[in-house]
TrEMBL record:
InterPro entries: FAD-dep_OxRdtase, FAD/NAD-bd_sf. Signal peptide: none annotated. This is FAD dependent oxidoreductase domain-containing protein. It comes from marine metagenome. Residues 2-207 form the FAD dependent oxidoreductase domain.
Length: 333
């Protein structure tokens, strides 16, 4: 078969690599080169499901793909002993519910004791109902990018067209030229669809990258609500996000003050963390596409087909294999 894939990010490139084993694939990218903005401009957490106690489907999809992701990309993932999820006293989900949630999905965890040294890094330990050590991975996105993109250049069955933005009109042309057109653009998942199956929203995001010796190889997510998350990148460098200040809408974009908003994220995080150096070294700026009505914090991966047009909206990077299974079901029916 001849298959067109729109979007040469992580998902589009990996799908192209897989399908090129048996098919001729043409990859279209709107930017001047293949990129991975959706995964690079984000916290490099390899989700195992701990983050989503209110969305069963998200957790099930992640679990179904996680081991396969590790088998394929083990050299791009590292682990640390102090990777903690802490339940705040004002959490949407209480500590007992959270513990039951971990147990029901057999998510590896161990309760943090009140005497454990990790609380020395936390501003007000008494504000927490309790916490758990978990075993989520840390992604090396630079390694991951190389591992996915290199095979694209060496494959004889993959053609690449960069600086080529595909709009609704061209989708119809591609549908006549190819057996299947698969949209992996992430930020515009329903190009060419007459009836988009779900409403989505775009959310611009800002994440601080900091360096602080007090948080070497340390991860701490405050659950579950308008809180903050600190996640390691390498050594004493980590990313910092805030549910309140990391996202912002497009109306703010023209007058967006990066330094001012980085400061807001850090100030919000200082309700929980005891920074020593408080040194900003970088920041991530990107756009997320989410299901519009995500009241339960859904991050599901959706694969939808309309004729020979398939849309892949990825919720979490580790569900890439779930999405491939769903795409193959559609094209091999």
């Amino acid at each position: 078969m001849k298959i067109a894939i729109i979007g040469a990010g992580f998902y589009g490139c990996y799908l192209a690599k897989k399908l090129s084993n048996n098919h001729e694939v043409h990859l279209f990218e709107s930017k001047e080169k293949m990129c991975m903005a959706a995964i690079v401009n984000n916290q490099n957490r390899l989700h195992l499901g701990y983050h989503y106690p209110r969305s069963n489907e998200t957790v099930l999809q992640i679990i179904s793909s996680y081991n396969r992701f590790l088998e394929e990309f083990r050299d791009c993932v590292s682990f640390i002993p102090q990777n903690i999820y802490a339940v705040h006293k004002d959490s949407n989900v209480d500590f007992e519910h959270y513990s039951n949630f971990f147990n029901s999905y057999n998510l590896d965890h161990r309760e943090v004791l009140k005497s454990d040294k990790i609380w020395d890094k936390i501003k007000n330990p008494k504000d927490f109902q309790g916490a758990f050590y978990t075993s989520e991975g840390i992604l090396d996105t630079s390694k991951l990018r190389l591992k996915v993109i290199e095979p694209i250049y060496s494959s004889k069955n993959i053609k690449i067209s960069c600086n080529h933005k595909v709009d609704d009109n061209e989708v119809n042309i591609l549908r006549n030229k190819f057996d299947y057109v698969i949209n992996c653009t992430y930020n515009d998942p329903y190009i060419g669809f007459e009836s988009p199956p779900v409403k989505v929203k775009k959310e611009h995001c800002l994440i601080v990258v900091m360096k602080d010796s007090n948080y070497r190889d340390f991860g701490f997510a405050v659950m579950d609500g308008n809180f903050c998350s600190l996640y390691p990148i390498k050594g004493d460098i980590f990313s910092l996000s805030s549910v309140v200040h990391t996202p912002f809408n497009k109306n703010e974009l023209s007058s967006f003050n990066v330094k001012e908003n980085l400061e807001k994220i850090i100030s919000d995080s200082e309700k929980y963390f005891l920074f020593k150096e408080r040194k900003i070294v970088d920041y991530y700026f990107g756009t997320k596409t989410k299901i519009k009505n995500d009241l339960n914090d859904e991050r599901e991966t959706l694969v939808v087909k309309e004729g020979n047009l398939i849309s892949v909206l990825i919720g979490k990077i580790s569900t890439i294999f779930y999405s491939i299974d769903e795409v193959e079901k559609e094209i091999y029916k």
